[in-house]
Amino acid sequence: MPIKIAKWGNSLGIRIPKHLAEQVQLQEGDEIEISTAEDKLIVTPLKRKKYTLEQLLEGMGEENLHSEIDWGEATGKEQW
């Protein structure tokens, strides 16, 4: 599938057609790695790291723990 290269600042850019992005589960904001091999440009999606709850909570401590917030009395069918 031919795609035109466009100037983007001092760099060059390509657009990835939607159907190709969907095939490799690429979304806006995702990171990719670009490399070359035998005169070919290779674009490889980087996998998002998945964290466990324990890993996410490792950085929590007294110094960065938010205090409790009082939202006032219930005004509807809230249950406390």
From TrEMBL:
The record, for InterPro entries, names:
Antitox_PemI-like, SpoVT-AbrB_dom, SpoVT-AbrB_sf
- PROSITE patterns named among the record's database cross-references: SPOVT_ABRB
Molecular function terms from GO = DNA binding; toxin sequestering activity
Gene3D superfamilies linked? 2.10.260.10
Q: Which domain of life is it from?
A: Bacteria
Protein name, entry field? Transcriptional regulator/antitoxin, MazE
Record keywords, A-Z: DNA-binding
User: Where's the SpoVT-AbrB domain?
Assistant: 3-48
